[in-house]
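User: Run a structure prediction on this.
Assistant: Running it now.
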Amino acid sequence: MSQAGDIPSLSSEAPGRNDETRRLPPGLREPLLRVEGLRTWFPVKKGVLRRTVGHVRAVDGVDLRVLRGQTLALVGESGCGKTTVGRSILRLVAPTAGRVLFEGKDLVSLPEAELRPIRRHIQMVFQDPMTSLDPRLRVRDIVAEGMEVFGIGANDADRTERVAALLAKVQLSPDHLRRFPHQFSGGQRQRIGIARALAVEPKLLICDEAVSALDVSIQAQILNLLGQLRDELGLTYLFITHDLSVVRYLADDVAVMYLGQIVENAPTGRLFADPQHPYTQGLLAAVPSVDPLERRVKVKVLGDVPSPEHPPAGCRFHTRCPKAFERCPVEEPALFAVPGGVSRCFLNDPPTFSER
């Protein structure tokens, strides 16, 4: 399997991006986050003695690189492991193997005492804004909690002023300070969640399906807000989603995940214009469009997702792939270089392509 350092430099001009980071030459852009060979397996226990009889391979050898100031989208069907990747980066679940390098420090091997101050710089925006906010706390205390933990602000009055400023930044009224989460709409609650993440002045935001629970019109507002905050504060995003229309708007690069592995990684524009992996082609073909120029030849993804406890031998997608051939069930493909990115498909292996 290719290591993260082997992935070619990925660059594109995503819609709405016009900041200094994007204009730097690729060699001068600094990776803020590198994920190398990340594995997160969950034991399957059975019997009276609860013996381990197998493992659910939720994440099985993931390599990612997120440049400073960049938005990387991690996409795939439900159950592919993308949320577990985000939680493993933060060590909300314990990785089984691999490295997570944030500004050069391996978060997987750090003791808890050294990991805690780094967590200030990596924050998460969760999918459900209702269940991720403590219903017993008022908005002021929800947002200020992280400040108190990390010693931000001179005193309670100073923290209250900071919270009011953050609410204004996420387009809420400072009058909302004394309200409880149940008194807000879903979009407003998600803005509170974003303000809570920003309260500790992070460098990286992991957005886990941050707009999937919202109405379409509210999704657009939250996406606009995230784009503004990214450019204004110099944030870096790992944006986890299944919605490719969201990806096209917000992301610079896209990593497509299937059954615990990255199957394609490329700049957003290139991936939408010329997807290389059959799974990516199937995902894009399923996106509805009213524009006849954007309607694609349908690539049908067959059957259901196999169990991550017993993934297929060879290429994990071959049981559902309309382009599978004799090599696919036998060998596991590496990440092959394609124009602008990588693809885990034997059709992108030059010798295989020339033979066929």
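The two ends are 23 Å apart (CA to CA).
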